Amino acid sequence: MNLISGTCKNGAFYFDSYPSSGIKVRGRFTSLFYQCVKVNIKTPCGIKTYRLDFSELKHWSKFQGLKLEKMPKLKLISNIHAFIYQKNGSTFPFLTGKYYQHRLNLEPWLTSKGIKKARLIDRLFFRSVTFLAIVDGRLKTVHIRRKSLIKWMESVQIPLNPDLKGNEALVYTVQEHANAIIKKQSEEQQLQTKPKENPVEINKPLPAIIPGVIKNILICRLTYNKKGEIVPGTTQEEKRLVFDKWQNDPRFSLKVLSEASENTVQVLCDDEENELINVDATDLSRRLHLSLSRIKKYAGKGNLNAYMDKKVLNMDVVIDYYERILKKMQGLEKQILSPAVLMKIVRLLVKKGFLKQGSKDIQKLQTIEINDWKIACGFSDEKKLLLLDLASLTFYNKGAAGTIYTIKSFLSGRLKVIKIACGMPDYILENEYYTLKHFHGYGREHGLQKAPQMLFRMKIEAEQKSRYAFLCHKYEGNLLQAAGLNKKLKPIKHDIFTTFGKKFNAIYQLVCNFERIYRTKLLHHGDIKLENVFYEVDKEGMVQLFLADFGGASVLDEKRGFHLESIAAPQYLPEGDLNAIFSARQEGNQGFFNQVAHKMDVYALGCLLYEFFSHGQIPYDPKQYVLRADYFPERKIPPLPTLDGPEFNRKVLESLPEELIEIIAAMTNLDYEKRICLTEVKDRLDEFKKSSQL
């Protein structure tokens, strides 16, 4: 039996030599129904056996960068043992030997009499010992007679420890002695075969020329090697070689050694003094992610500088991004990537030139495949590297403003939204992206959906070419869902608006936020409706609303001129508004244009309130509307209300307080000149809230 050190707590096993998430431990009874792997632990109280869930062990190995999916069970166990022991700096954990005449001969005692095998019938009548061993070059489950094993141990002078009991203790004792003898034989063989060398020859450094300067550095921050392991920094002032090619970053500098040894590289600094110094080859390989053997090889040929020019990546970019993602991973409860795999991903992206900064082009996601994962990599505007799990990409919804997909963040597992410009020009989605960025500025504007994290190009099967897309936060749903009116999406499981007070307060905050943003930043949205208002419920059960979908949004100021790509939602625009907005644009009257555009948003917001409080009704009878074909002959658009047309339908809202009905009626007045503005809407809602004590 082969021992691995670790601890078992809360029904899970944790390796000591390589910290990770726990692996489920099965009981003796439940192991009958699940495939398990036995792991034996040496403790002060003896050796204990734990049964690890085989599927979770395979899952764990995948996240450590081990490709063990399609392996026989014995080979998988062998590779995991080797991996753990290598991390722990221990010797290989399996006994090795050969079968000869129904006896097992173990190394290094191959000339001994051997141990009797325990056949199936023997195991029924005699006590036997079972363990894994490499026999005849293959990992096998070995069965031997216990009595024969004890007798053989006495013959090869392996003392029995009376404190350790059980078959595992016997095997562990044999393995300890085997490792000690093999290690001693190896050391003796090295001493015998090692040629006599001139001491001066041994300490002769390898020649190399590297451009750099000598500096007295007080603090050199830690860095990471190629496997993601920490390379410690310094706390005392010391002479170090700083390379010119890596921004003089002390993290990649090398300590200047006073004496040469067989592991040093002699460097001729390419500076004014041309000083010849000694540096440690191992330190060079760890800090700059190079092969130690190749450093010595090329240094011996005198062309180490050429090798480094070819192989050294932009190390400050590699380490900065690795540290950033590692810090984020450490803040998460579940660690998906091992440091080695994370470093491999970052290095691969640097090799492909993906982490170069300063490009003004719309980025394309970089797709990499590693350990059976398909990862999409992109940059946020804050230059944060984002990793997305492409296997989780799922269609969510399709509307006039684009197609929506959900996708998981590879690090946190949280759902994100990808909005793709399908069925509409790219510039509309691009306008939405930059409009949200403008209104949020350097902080966060309450009441608006969160700013998208990145803009990129993406190709999906439905499109022949790549289209604009952006990544953004996923909300719990929209008001159309909350009202149970969205037939495309599943209704929410529970009513989030249990009282009129909750409904009013949520809408009140939405109006207040919108009025503040219009007053301070001159926002014109252009497409306000229930499905374009997202919601989230906080820990206290309060509903927060966020205005979304800014494809037709604009800023109403003199500098930006006339901009109205989207003329609002179909049922939210009276005929008089259309006539006025087109007239203002034709005459070049910017002030009048801005006034009407603002009143259009007020009308749309009033219709939203009407629908929200009436469960999907509209404020005017659609049978009396006139057709909009004269304005938009190329599109099928529903009719719109006219000034001489229908009356405001108050009966639908008769369950509401009269003050609130009057506010909604004033917001949806068909005459934009008589319609109230946003500031007046807010003031009247303030009065209603105060008088009704909501």
Automatic annotation (TrEMBL):
<dbReference type="InterPro" id="IPR008271">
    <property type="entry name" value="Ser/Thr_kinase_AS"/>
</dbReference>
<dbReference type="Pfam" id="PF00069">
    <property type="entry name" value="Pkinase"/>
</dbReference>
<dbReference type="InterPro" id="IPR011009">
    <property type="entry name" value="Kinase-like_dom_sf"/>
</dbReference>
<dbReference type="GO" id="GO:0004672">
    <property type="term" value="F:protein kinase activity"/>
</dbReference>
<feature type="domain" description="Protein kinase">
    <location>
        <begin position="390"/>
        <end position="689"/>
    </location>
</feature>
<dbReference type="InterPro" id="IPR053083">
    <property type="entry name" value="TF_kinase-domain_protein"/>
</dbReference>
<dbReference type="InterPro" id="IPR000719">
    <property type="entry name" value="Prot_kinase_dom"/>
</dbReference>
<protein>
    <recommendedName>
        <fullName>Protein kinase domain-containing protein</fullName>
    </recommendedName>
</protein>
<dbReference type="GO" id="GO:0005524">
    <property type="term" value="F:ATP binding"/>
</dbReference>
